[in-house]
Automatic annotation (TrEMBL):
It comes from Massilia eurypsychrophila. GO terms for biological process: sulfide oxidation, using sulfide:quinone oxidoreductase. Residues 88-144 form the Rhodanese domain. This is TIGR01244 family phosphatase. Coiled coil: none annotated. The keyword Oxidoreductase applies. Signal peptide: none annotated. The keyword Oxidoreductase applies.
Length: 556
């Protein structure tokens, strides 16, 4: 928590956590203002958690969210009005503090000289020159003046972005690359399922972003606000401009917690949890260990979602623990899925059904979670029947594992790069944008039909790396992605059904059947998941070592 004084009675910081509230109170703050919308990151607590902690320590909490880089003049005015009405001193926060500072700067425009605003922000560590240019340009950011320019700019420092940068450097050392990402920490998110069952420690899934970005790559620690593809420009939070020759877009997706009524108010307590949040995966394990009898509900929202097998993984591992603890016969397990089938690739369903039967799991298809009442321990679903009719169903629970609906990030959905559904519109084989030839996209935010998994990004990154270099005239031929995705379905502690498939659900096993038969539970696949894949991720995929991932090339 890096708190910076900005103006009399006002300080700003990056994301704060509920357990930091005592330190915030001891620092003298009497009010906080959250300028970050829920769901921007898997390491982000919901505002409701922050609010409860603040109230417990006598701090007045306020929620005034703004999309990253999309702060409007009206939001700036609202910030100024709120700031004038709350007890001082005030701590405003967002992901990095930039949005809060921007809102303050806009609220002061016309009240203070612009140089004085810029100077105050600079002393707090924020560059407001771009915001001032926007004010001087009547609300529009001019893109003819760029702070920096790079040969390749990558949006997103997650698995896809880091792997692409590493693959580019492996092919052309010294290439001028910049990664734009505001996060301080890079997470191995496939490990959170194992945190939620007590196999992994959460801290082992986190590395600093600075240590993860490949050596020689420029790190622009900022959020993207908008794209100007006709000008080869990206506008950042704070209205700064970055130019590029080639752009790679892979920002991940957004967890839409607020799409489920009442969920944000109860998530992390009252038996409601999710392995999709870093700080709640340990709570999942706590709930599973403590449940000795009652009803456990595991939900799955409409597709697309990040790792379609994750909702089931949590369920199987929980059931296995209850079985080993001798209480499975006293726990009623419901799987409530918005989908119509257990798994999208039919070849893996028979093995999964054996565990469904063995654990006594009740399958409920066409069930979409729409509301949660934590204190009452009830979950409300909209059930869609095969004939298209819909009904409201309410069920009691003792444990509720929620997977939220998932959408493309806000700045992607409203950009010219998006298709009608809000995802980045790319060719499914080359991963090149369908309109702008110098833009590629991969990972969760692309509109390709593959499974949204780290394994998919591992195969996509070398394809994009080669095709970007070909566009720069530094490589020949065209690499193609076949839609490969992998989902290690943890059906019990020590066994995995290793689902691997390409576009259209075609099976694509990486190993011969005599070694690992992906359609059957395997102890060797568990060993792969627990012991091999984490170091493969950190030391190979993110280092440009394309083990079993080098793409085939076709003629241009």
């Amino acid at each position: 928590m890096n708190i910076q004084a900005l103006a009399p009675g006002l300080s700003v910081s990056g994301q704060i956590m509920p357990d930091q509230m005592v330190a915030i109170r001891e620092a003298g703050f009497r009010a906080i203002i959250c300028n970050r919308p829920d769901g921007e990151g898997g390491d982000q607590p919901l505002f409701a958690e922050i609010e409860r902690a603040a109230q417990a320590w006598g701090i007045e909490p306020h929620y005034l969210p703004a999309e990253s880089g999309k702060v409007t003049d009206q939001q700036g005015a609202a910030f100024g009005e709120l700031l004038a009405s709350v007890p001082k001193p005030v701590l405003a926060f967002c992901r990095t503090g930039m949005r809060s500072t921007t809102m303050w700067a806009l609220s002061q425009a016309g009240r203070e000289p612009l140089p004085q605003i810029v100077d105050a922000a600079k002393k707090a560590g924020f560059d407001m020159k771009g915001v001032m240019r926007r004010i001087a340009n009547h609300g529009r950011t001019p893109v003819d003046v760029a702070e920096v320019s790079h040969a390749v700019v990558i949006i997103g420092g997650g698995a896809a972005g880091i792997a692409t940068a590493a693959s580019l450097l492996a092919r052309q050392p010294g290439l001028d690359i910049a990664i734009i990402d505001p996060a301080d920490v890079h997470y191995y998110q496939p490990g959170w399922t194992l945190v939620g069952c007590g196999v992994f420690d959460g801290a082992a899934t986190a590395h600093t972003m600075a240590s993860t970005i490949p050596r020689g790559v420029h790190w622009i620690k900022a959020a993207v606000a908008a794209f100007e593809p006709d000008s080869n420009a990206v506008i950042l939070d704070g209205c700064r401009v970055v130019k590029y020759e080639q752009l790679v877009v892979c920002p991940g997706l957004k967890l839409d917690w607020r799409a489920i009524e009442g969920l944000s108010e109860t998530l992390g307590r009252n038996g409601v949890t999710s392995n999709y949040l870093y700080h709640l995966a340990p709570y999942t394990w706590e709930l599973v260990r403590n449940l000795r009898a009652g009803r456990a509900i595991f939900t799955q929202p409409p597709m697309p979602i990040k790792c379609a097998g994750a909702p089931q993984k949590a369920m199987y591992l929980s059931a296995d623990h209850w079985k080993r603890s001798g209480v499975l016969d006293r726990v009623k397990i419901d799987f409530c899925s918005a989908g119509a089938v257990l798994f999208g690739v039919a070849a893996y369903v028979p093995a999964l059904m054996e565990y469904i039967d063995a654990y006594g799991i009740d399958l409920n298809f066409g069930y979409t979670l729409t509301g949660v009442d934590g204190p009452a321990r009830t979950a409300t679903f909209t059930r869609r029947d095969p004939d298209g009719s819909e009904h409201v169903v309410t069920r009691q629970f003792d444990l509720l594992h929620v997977v939220p609906p998932q959408v493309a990030p806000d700045f992607i959905r409203v950009s010219p790069l998006a298709d009608a559904a809000g995802w980045i519109d790319v060719d499914p084989a080359t991963l090149r944008h369908k309109t702008w030839a110098n833009i590629h996209a991969l990972g969760d935010a692309a509109n390709t039909s593959n499974a949204k998994t780290a394994a998919a990004a591992r195969k996509q990154a070398p394809v994009v790396a080669h095709n970007v270099l070909a566009a720069l005239s530094n490589a020949t031929g065209r690499a193609r992605y076949d839609g490969y995705g992998s989902c290690p379905l943890t059906v019990e502690r020590g066994k995995i059904v290793l689902a691997e498939f390409t576009y259209g659900g075609k099976l694509a096993p990486s190993f011969p059947a005599w070694l690992i038969d992906g359609t059957r539970p395997s102890r060797l696949a568990w060993f792969l998941k627990e012991r091999i894949l984490p170091p493969l991720y950190w030391k190979a995929m993110l280092k440009g070592r394309e083990w079993m991932a080098r793409p085939e090339l076709a003629d241009s």
